[in-house]
UniProtKB/TrEMBL annotation:
Family: Belongs to the MSOX/MTOX family.
Species whose genome carries this gene: Caenorhabditis nigoni
Enzyme Commission number(s): 1.5.3.1
Tagged with keyword Nucleotide-binding: no
Gene3D superfamilies: D-Amino Acid Oxidase, subunit A, domain 2, FAD/NAD(P)-binding domain
Gene name of the encoded protein: Cnig_chr_X.g24542
Catalytic activity: sarcosine + O2 + H2O = formaldehyde + glycine + H2O2
Domain FAD dependent oxidoreductase: 15-370
Gene Ontology molecular function: flavin adenine dinucleotide binding; L-pipecolate oxidase activity; sarcosine oxidase activity
Name assigned to this protein: sarcosine oxidasee (formaldehyde-forming)
Domain of life (superkingdom): Eukaryota
Endoplasmic reticulum keyword on record: no
Any one Gene Ontology BP term: L-lysine catabolic process to acetyl-CoA via L-pipecolate
GO cellular component terms listed in the entry, alphabetical order: peroxisome
């Protein structure tokens, strides 16, 4: 079946079409246009919607990571954001420092990666954590790593900045334009059909979050998106609320390997007086890729218990507010960056970034654009190639 209009008129042609205007897609479209590629960015909902993974005011940025392949991507993103801040005269993040607290030897592994890249950091004992940050309480089963370049990303401002700069370069955004289909062979140009129009393109890049399961149901990287219960918590006493603001509260990653519970926390950027603290686990989405009506109470009670044990200034008995976020990871919890398969080199994917992807999105977007333009990538992203899961079936 042809994707072209019945009247035979040739559809609009673009060098690149990017599907999905979340942070991955917006950064990718910006870099494609910056490389001189005529680019169209498609979004099935309105820009800045809350149906995916890119909404909200805050995310964590950090050099510290369990895998060394992420560090150069973060460095590239820091450089890009510094350039954007200067160009736009706008503050896009706040350097607060990251505290990574973990049981076992994970902190020392991360420290080894940072040393290889000559990244400044500090390793402290569990008891020293509360000396540095009086909000927290950890014993000697825990070790802390302080990454001074960690901080809060102003997520909604990042998203808006890349979209605006993309348009300033001459890029086109079509919102409320659901993607329907495309030719799935090695022909060029590719034919694309949306709900309202048709296009052709030399390169097609999917940055669609959880909807990757819809567009690529037969690939080998089996993905099960989940719904996170994004919980916000207030101080027990109003007079101690200042300990939860950006001047006093670092971004936090806490991994209790004994209990197999992983958490992340940020200061009161989203809701004044309430930190964001979330368990890195959630409920399956519905068949239509929607959130459940309500999240399992366990994903709210466990963070509350963690708070009671380790952040005594915060009231862990009941969250102030609970939002939802769609969370998509690959089977090995690493990104997908590059051609979907060697059979379809003109179809690329950038996805599975939940949990750490916002901070690397500028670097990922640049890499995808460079691949689309046939250029070597500034940062080596071969570690994240979809080919590691084998060819599509």
């Amino acid at each position: 079946m042809s994707c072209f209009p019945e009247n035979g008129k040739m559809p609009n042609h673009y060098d690149v079409v990017v599907v999905g205007a979340g942070i991955f897609g917006s950064c990718t479209a910006y870099h494609c246009q910056r490389l001189g590629l005529r680019t169209l960015l498609l979004e099935q909902f309105n820009l800045g919607h809350t149906n995916g993974s890119s909404h909200g005011k805050s995310r964590i940025t950090r050099y510290a990571h369990t895998d060394p392949e992420y560090v150069p991507l973060v460095g590239d993103s820091y450089a890009q954001i510094a350039e954007l801040e200067m160009k736009r005269d706008e503050k896009l993040w706040n350097k607060l420092g990251l505290l990574w607290a973990a049981t076992g030897d994970q902190v020392h592994t991360i420290s080894g990666h940072l040393k290889k890249h000559h990244i400044e950091h500090e390793v402290i004992t569990g008891s020293q954590i509360s000396e540095r940050y009086p909000q927290f309480k950890f014993d000697e089963k825990w070790t802390g790593l302080i990454d001074p370049m960690g901080g809060v990303i102003y997520a909604n401002k990042w998203l808006n900045a890349f979209q605006e700069e993309f348009k300033n370069l001459g890029g086109t955004i079509r919102e409320n334009e659901p993607f329907i289909s495309h030719t799935e062979d090695n022909t060029s140009p590719l034919a694309i059909k949306t709900e309202n129009d048709s296009f052709t393109t030399n390169k097609l890049i999917f940055t669609v979050g959880c909807w990757i399961t819809k567009f690529f149901p037969n690939v080998n990287f089996k993905i099960k998106p989940i719904s996170l219960a994004v919980c916000y918590w207030k101080a027990k006493e109003e007079r101690k609320s200042h300990l939860l603001d950006e001047n006093n509260f670092p971004v936090l990653i806490a991994k209790d390997h004994d209990k197999k519970e992983f958490y992340f926390a940020l200061p009161d950027t989203d809701y004044p007086g309430a930190i964001k603290l979330v368990l890195d686990d959630g409920d399956e989405l519905t068949k239509d890729l929607n959130h459940p009506i309500r999240n399992n109470q366990n994903f709210i009670e466990l963070p509350g218990n963690f708070i009671s044990n380790h952040i005594p200034v915060v009231d862990g008995s009941k969250p102030y507010k609970v939002d939802q976020c769609k969370y998509t990871t690959s089977p090995d919890h690493h990104y997908l960056i590059g051609p979907v398969s060697s059979k379809n080199p003109n179809t690329l994917v950038g996805g599975c970034g939940s949990g750490s992807g916002f901070k690397t999105a500028p670097g990922i977007g640049k890499a995808l654009a460079e691949i689309a333009a046939g250029k070597p990538t500034t940062v080596d992203v071969s570690f994240f190639s979809p080919s590691r899961f084998g060819e599509s079936v």
